[in-house]
Amino acid sequence: MTLLTPPSRSIIKSILSKEQSEGVGAKIRRSIGRPELRNHDPFLMLDEFDSDPTGGFPDHPHRGFETVTYMLEGQVQHEDFAGHKGTIGPGDLQWMTAGRGIVHSEMPVKTETRIHGLQLWINLPKEHKMCEPQYQELRDGQIPRATPQDGVTIKVIAGESYGVKSQVYTRTPTMYLDFRMEKNKAVTQTIPSTFTGFIYMLKGKAYIGDKEFEGKAHHTLTFSEDGAETVKIQTKDEDAHFVFIAGEPLKEPIVQHGPFVMNTDKEIYDTFVDYQYAKNGFERARNWRSTIA
Ligand code: FJE
Ligand code: FE
């Protein structure tokens, strides 16, 4: 018997993300992590935030995964328990490896009118869950672009597109691409055969795979897992803006309690104790309060 690998991944699901409240009065649309899109190994969550600067995400911990904040409009301030702080503006990226522990605050700059961006949570393989925390921060101008043709711009946040490579170090092999396509364009994005992946549509319409599955704003379109090494994407009578996210599944057990993601119940229990008693990576959590929340 011969198994044929199809030329392009196809779309197996299209799920609309409606607005909901998260953090403290923040409005988000949850993509990965919503009930219909659980267990998208190695991804744990993707939130699109788009609102005025009223809500935010005051002091909270993380352990065992990475948070990737990518701003589209407006500015978010962040500050952590080790004194690391700054502002993420339009087009900027913060790739935060929480590892053994980060406590931080993420709050919109109050003078902004629109705060728009994405936060992706990527699970870490068990050998990296307790690594030292690390930040990889890139300003918009430091993120490389591929322009395979006029009217198509691909920002390469992680991975590679049309020969353009990101310098971001991914402990979990990940591709993160921001596509802006004018109408009536077609591209073919390569993807490793073993990666799972999806497109999250921000604006307009795109048509994906040989069957030209229609992707619309605020929808998550998940890729078939058939080993195909390309994804065909085209636009018709509208421009499109979307992110293309893919990664190597970890295939390890996931025990998640909110902002802590480990492999076993015991590790989650130990994490509560470490956080409560400020040890094993949470030393600086003792009596820490952010100045921005
Ligand atoms: C969190 C609830 C949360 N999406 N998008 C529980 F909302 C959060 C959290 C975020 C978050 C932060 C930003 Cl800047 C953007 C987000 C959820 O911080 F960590 C837990 N545990
Ligand atoms: Fe956070």
From TrEMBL:
GO cellular component, one term: nucleus
Domain Pirin N-terminal: 27-122
Cofactor(s) named in the record: Fe cation
Binding positions for Fe cation per the UniProt entry: 60, 62, 104, 106
GO MF: metal ion binding; quercetin 2,3-dioxygenase activity
Sequence ranges assigned to domain Pirin C-terminal in this UniProt record: 176-280
Keywords per UniProt: Iron, Metal-binding, Nucleus
Co-factor note (free text): Binds 1 Fe cation per subunit.
Domain of life from the UniProt record: Eukaryota
SUPFAM superfamilies reported in the protein's UniProt record: RmlC-like cupins
InterPro entries: Pirin, Pirin_C_dom, Pirin_N_dom, RmlC-like_jellyroll, RmlC_Cupin_sf
Protein's cellular compartments: Nucleus
Predominant location: nucleus
Family, similarity comment: Belongs to the pirin family.
Protein name: Pirin-like protein
Phylogenetic placement of the source organism: Eukaryota, Fungi, Fungi incertae sedis, Mucoromycota, Mortierellomycotina
